[in-house]
Amino acid sequence: QVQLVESGGGLVQAGGSLRLSCAVSGRRFTMYAMGWFRQAPGKGREFVAHISWSGSSTVYGDSVKGRFTIARDNAKNTVYLQMNSLKPEDTALYFCATTRYLQTVLRRASDLDEYDYWGQGTQVTVSS
Hints:
The protein is an all-beta fold. The protein has no helices and 11 strands.
């Protein structure tokens, strides 16, 4: 069973930084596309960032571009989301996700339907 566990969330002041981690278990290989999404109260799940199965390509949502960075450490089977210059509007539950099959090139990396496995989320709250 593939499991994803997010960590690193918390309460920070506007302008601060956090690094989220997503640990993947239940898999031998690391060649899977990964993504981060977030959901604020009363809103739908929003695309944040994507990294390709090879790690050679990344995609970011417009609202976080230039502030957030996604990276992966295959040795640890972990994906990170470095969040800088945080804003109150970044407050949300952050989820990581991955695909079912190896070496999958997503048709649309920002589409949550492209992902098959999801973590339970980690809360990020940014105060003004």
